[in-house]
Automatic annotation (TrEMBL), chains A, B:
InterPro entries: Ald_DH/histidinol_DH, Ald_DH_C, Ald_DH_N, Aldehyde_DH_dom, Aldehyde_DH_Superfamily, ALDH_KGSADH. PANTHER family: ALDEHYDE DEHYDROGENASE-RELATED (PTHR43353:SF3), SUCCINATE-SEMIALDEHYDE DEHYDROGENASE, MITOCHONDRIAL (PTHR43353). It comes from Persicitalea jodogahamensis. It comes from the Bacteria. Residues 17-461 form the Aldehyde dehydrogenase domain. Keywords: Oxidoreductase. This is 2,5-dioxovalerate dehydrogenase. GO terms for molecular function: oxidoreductase activity, acting on the aldehyde or oxo group of donors, NAD or NADP as acceptor. Gene3D superfamilies: Aldehyde Dehydrogenase, Chain A, domain 1 (3.40.605.10), Aldehyde Dehydrogenase, Chain A, domain 2 (3.40.309.10).
Length: 529, 529
């Protein structure tokens, strides 16, 4: 397949805008030849009208048909083979192995959602049968299930060209639930976005989906995203990126005549706390594990461990030396964009220049090419950390600050200065952890996922995953972007009172034709009524 | 018990403010003698600090202890006997029978939440066990459940002195989930609020709850409510009232440094659509049923049917006459406050004065006393309705507008002008309803609860209830204020990765000591691991 560069408005292509932009290749600081056309306001309007029109038909399809569509997307993506991976590699600088893994995760996510909706119990069906003779008033028949809400706008993210972009963690569950999806492609990888959009359109046509179930628009500025979020047909927004970007969309959405939810994942410093006995027992392995996590993928993960807390202890010096040694030998990587690299060095240098911050190591193994990262770790005392809000913020990239507190009391005081996080990690065995119940509560209050003896990088895609923490790590800590519950962002419950069985959705019919789990008169059952 | 009139800051009482206000008695347009002290900024601060302090201890209590507390509240409320009902009757003008029923519902709600948390499956536990040998990377052990979020601010509402006030639909689930609750008492019924707060404090002490698990503050203005919503310790807000009031709180909460959810139920016109064959078949009974629903409780319900849609048909004239006759003989009732009565007559008169609006009947049976309502219905054509946005808004009180469309096409066009609603009703048998799939979708999109052949008044408290519709009927259509799922407003999911079994919450332990339903490796089960 070749890259088209036009906006995908449902099954049509459109390029009204004379202005274009091109793919940036970070490793060579150059541009590729294809031209991409930012959508015009008229194209946005056309897209949203088509999505709204498609909604009723798409939402009414049996779940099995929507599952076929999701599976077809995975097939079309895989059918593109290495062409897709190579384009992603060019546009992001990410290694082929990582991209292959990310593609696998993306296809896996879509397959999980196909399985989820085929099985059907995810709609949380509840049935309370009528009691016509109840005194003083009869009880009606009430049935409830989750239903789709309408067109969903999704922003592709720069650091995951597959898993958090065109066919990623927002698109999959939004489509699975029965909502049309409108993508705003990230300008950092328009080519891979274009190819993926072609795969989705092909899958939609092949499985008989309504025109408008999926659209994708380009922009290298903010106009298209703004118009999409403000459009009255839009019912929710998915976004992964910076705090600034997420909050801009969030505020925009709240200021609409009809406020809508924005699920923005906005960054996190993912504190790691190492208790002293554990530091002593596992000095070397902790240093290695942490160094690997801090530098993984040039630190370009929302789960990068940006702050590591521990206390003065005899093992500390050896740990610091080993940690510095491990980080020091990390080879540099191409960062995603010129802007991300510049921002990384700016924020890192600012952090290193703060009072009482001592650089532990700056890695020096360089590879050829532009836009290279440099892994860096530093150390600061608990007191200096508490006194300096500049040190509490995320530095996106392979940087981490070791906060050395004088004792456990100071460590807990320092944690009060940490805001909401995607994750928190505690390095401790059960006995040592149990000695600090207040510390466990402190970390719990601040984290969406609380890890024992593990690093935050690596987000398993499974039902028990919660990838979403208290503000400001996300705009809504009640929802996850990873795992089956990600679908709950794009639905609402609806009750049906005294409906004739023939008109009810299958999930709520007496016979339970889908054989799903339901709460019937307050009992979990798969039985018919 | 006697009324104290001081703010309940945890287990202490406080009345720093020299300014006071008194209970208004609507039926006699007079005031009672007791004085209530609005909270000062310092009292608000003290209250929130105490709530924050209580949170960790309260959240860590076993669910059975919290259930004991909820049951104790019901016992203390019932122990107050008629004194509580009589005070409510004085302050609201609502009939004793209604208040007795509402008290029963309130106690029933609390009991349902006690049962829910004792059983325990509501936490939506999910367990994915580790696969240490998985390739290419081991799979960690992940477990997830819903956890409480912190202090919840609840605004008492004017129209339900029990069920939506101090111990009502927000307080019950917030406490059940493990959150401290801070009430802002509604100034329309401070005495019944005071007595209920005493009952809750007594129950909290008797069952060994931490000081600060519950507080209640007075105000007859907006300062206290504003300070509570803006306070950094507040993690969510529950409100039932006007669109203006709800949106003011919502915007305030979004403008905080840390935005928090506001669950505001703000009003609804609850459209009722009568299909022509059904109008013909059930002319008299429909007229009676509707008249009863429009005038119930002087129309002071969020589920009052403010708009009734039908089409020109031979049975229409007879229906209108019967409907007018039934509404005409309704006896007037005391309205809740002077302000509500004035607003009712102002908005009703404005609606009746709009072009092409024809008054069908104004009831004339008056009872003695001040603040009396007057049931009123009017009629307008579909076209005039569509052309006039003033007719689309709620008139809080016993008023309803019959919109007569020239055919089903116009009726469906008219429904496009209706915004989000708590409920929609369709009067039709299965065959007639099935002829209008587009109409079903139109109503579905707009309603939280979709009723067949029934009126919207009467909100059954049961698991399948969804009392919460698309904006602007509520600020968040994903959550209900009635039924067991109301608890979902006051929690967030949290994942525990690779935790030692001994430190996990009981709900997630291998042995499943609470015997709850869990999703274990993607299968629903009560089995241990």
């Amino acid at each position: 397949m070749s890259i088209i560069g036009k906006n995908y408005i449902g099954f049509s292509q459109s390029a009204d805008n004379a202005k274009t932009f091109q793919s940036y290749v970070p490793v060579s600081d150059s541009h590729l030849s294809e031209e991409f056309h930012p959508a015009t306001p008229e194209e946005v309007q056309r897209t949203m009208q088509l999505a709204e029109k498609a909604f009723d038909e798409y939402a009414a399809l049996p779940a099995a048909k929507r599952a076929d569509f999701l599976v077809a997307i995975t097939e079309e993506i895989m059918a593109m083979g290495d062409e897709l991976l190579e384009r992603a590699h060019q546009e992001t600088g990410l290694p082929m192995g990582r991209l292959q893994g990310e593609r696998g995760r993306t296809v896996g996510q879509l397959t999980q959602f196909a399985d989820l909706i085929r099985e059907g119990s995810w709609v949380e069906a509840r049935v309370d049968t009528a009691q016509p003779d109840r005194q003083p008033a009869p009880k009606p028949d009430l049935r409830k299930m989750l239903v789709p809400i309408g067109p969903i706008v999704v922003f592709g993210s720069s650091n995951f060209p597959f898993a958090y972009s065109i066919a990623g963690v927002d698109t999959g569950p939004a489509l699975a639930a029965g909502n049309p999806v409108i993508l705003k492609a990230h300008p950092a990888h328009p080519g891979v976005s274009d190819l993926t959009a072609q795969a989705i359109v092909k899958a939609a046509k092949r499985t008989g989906m309504p025109d408008g179930v999926f659209s994708m628009l380009y922009d290298d500025g903010y106009e298209v995203g703004t118009a999409l979020v403000q459009h009255p047909h839009t019912k929710a927004v998915g976004f992964t990126g910076s705090l600034k970007g997420g909050m801009a969309l969030y505020k925009m959405a709240q200021e609409r005549d009809e406020p809508i939810p924005v699920f923005a994942e906005m960054g996190s410093v993912n504190p790691v706390v190492i208790l002293p006995d554990t530091l002593t027992a596992q000095t070397d392995s902790l240093a290695k594990t942490l160094a690997g996590s801090v530098t993984l993928g040039a630190g370009q993960f929302c789960t990068n461990p940006g702050l590591v807390f521990t206390v003065e202890s005899p093992a500390l010096k050896e740990f610091e030396e080993k940690y510095a040694e491990e980080v020091g030998k990390v080879t540099s990587m191409t960062m995603l964009t010129e802007g991300i690299r510049q921002n990384y060095f700016k924020l890192r240098d600012a952090a290193l220049a703060e009072p009482e911050v001592e650089t532990l190591v700056l890695s020096d193994e360089k590879v050829e090419g532009e836009n290279q990262s440099q892994a860096s770790i530093a150390r600061v005392s608990g007191k200096a950390f508490m006194d300096n809000p500049n040190l509490h913020e995320e530095v996106f990239g392979p940087f981490s600050l070791l906060v050395v507190c004088k004792d456990m009391e100071e460590l807990q005081a320092a944690l009060w200065h940490i805001s909401g996080q995607l994750t928190a990690s505690l390095m401790a065995d059960a006995d040592e952890a149990a000695r600090y119940p207040q510390l466990l509560r402190l970390l719990s209050r601040r984290a969406g996922r609380f890890i024992m003896n593990g690093v935050p990088t690596g987000v398993e895609v499974c039902p028990a995953q919660h990838h979403g923490g208290p503000f400001p790590s996300t705009t809504d800590s009640r929802f996850t972007s990873v795992g089956r519950d990600a679908i709950l962002r794009f639905v609402r419950p609806q009750s049906f009172q005294d409906w004739p069985d023939s008109l009810l959705p299958d999930e709520l019919k007496n016979a339970n034709p889908m054989g799903i789990w339901r709460l019937v008169n307050n009992e979990q059952t798969k039985e018919a009524i």
